[in-house]
Amino acid sequence: MSAKAGQQTGKEAAKSLNREAMQVLEQEALNKRMGEIQHKIMVLSGKGGVGKSTVAANLAITLALDGYHMGLLDIDFHGPSIPKLLGIEDRVPRMGQGTIQPIEMSANLKVMSMGFLLSAQDLAVIWRGPLKMGAIKQFLKDVEWGKLDYLIIDSPPGTGDEPLSVAQLIPNIDGAIVVTSPQDLSVIDVRKSITFCRQVSVPVLGVIENMSGLVCPHCGREIQVFKKGGGERMAMEMNVPFLGSIPIDPQLVEASDKGVPFVSEYSKTETAKAFEGVVQTLLVGMGESHGKETLPPETKSERSAPQKKETSSLKIAIPVSQGKLAAHFGHSQQFALVEAEGGQIKKTTLATPPPHEPGALPRWLHEQGAQVIIAGGMGRRAQGHFESQGIQVVIGAASLTPEELVRGYLDGTLEMGENICDH
Question: Are residues 316 and 257 part of one domain?
Fold first, then answer.
């Protein structure tokens, strides 16, 4: 080997070592930044047009309204829609000394998107994979997120460079939420997102079925525009949690076009309540309590019992067997529906439930107007199904008559034991 060739080889080796050292330092800086964030969640969909960004934005806002310190990162470089959805597309992040300040939409919500960095909204980003990975690394490493409870990462459709980069870069990512619409064409493509997560060792936290029915504003009947239930069936078939359904709401479209946060401006709508139910189910599945409460770490059911209920009217569902509480809600042939008003029992009726299938009983009880279910035992996934329908779950009750249980619940003396269900 000539001296010149030896020098060239030495220079290449030195460059390679420098690159490796820089990569190590960058990863250490990224790990440190991500270490300040308690939970990191990707929002994925194998299909475009299912409302993934709308879901990601409203989940982040719902959690922020519940008191969690949130970050929302938009890594859809070719179609960044988060700034428009939130009405902050004119904001510009401050930069300096290798750091980027995210846009603070509220005290509890910080946002970062490529959309903030484009000089014009119709400017196209034409990048290949390495540039995308570099930008994602910079957003994770250099954006001063600070201490957050959750970072929601909105990914573009498909299973390409962007979600793969996130899966590879973020240490100990909590998992992914997969968004679909109900029709078969969407579900077939979205299945690939679940397979992708399994191949890159990212846990699937659950499936959300968006655009799930439309409630007619005139007659109140539900119209199944894109069918219904496809996302829930897919979740069951692929053995992943189902987080809930989000109905179509014209006000959601209007709010998105105007850049108005839907769940805060239209909090009383069924769609906003559905987002809240999805968040509750997600938090239960992650072992979190709902809301940043400064209370002792008991279970929700244990906290809900000792408080006297002042609700003017209430309907409480109780699974019964031989006139008393059935040990498990799914093994009951009848439900007692106890109506109370002003803290007093007014009426008790017995109703026969539909066959016990995942999600069927919560939907049926929601249709019956139930706001609370008192049970002896109930699995975590079932609790999530009830909460997604806006039904409060109280578990660990003793085998008493429905009236005895409701009186104890209303006056705050209901004694709760352990949840006898372990699935």
Answer: no
DSSP assigned state of 320: E
pLDDT in tens, 300-337: 333 333 344 444 578 999 998 888 888 777 667 889 99
Q: Are the C-beta atoms of residues 379 and 422 closer than 8 Å to each other?
A: yes
Nearest to 311 by CA among 283, 339, 347, 332: 339
280 & 318 share domain: no
Quick one: which of 73, 108, 67 has its CA closest to 288?
67
Domain encompassing residue 256: 30-285
pLDDT tens for 58-88 read: 999 999 988 899 999 998 877 688 998 999 9
Q: State pTM to two decimals.
A: 0.64
Residue 16 inside a domain? The answer is no
CB 263 within 8 A of CB 58: yes
Structural contact between residues 62 and 174, judged by C-beta atoms closer than 8 angstroms: no
Separation CA 63–CA 288 (nearest Å): 12
**Which residue, 35, 52, 48, is CA-closest to 151?**
35
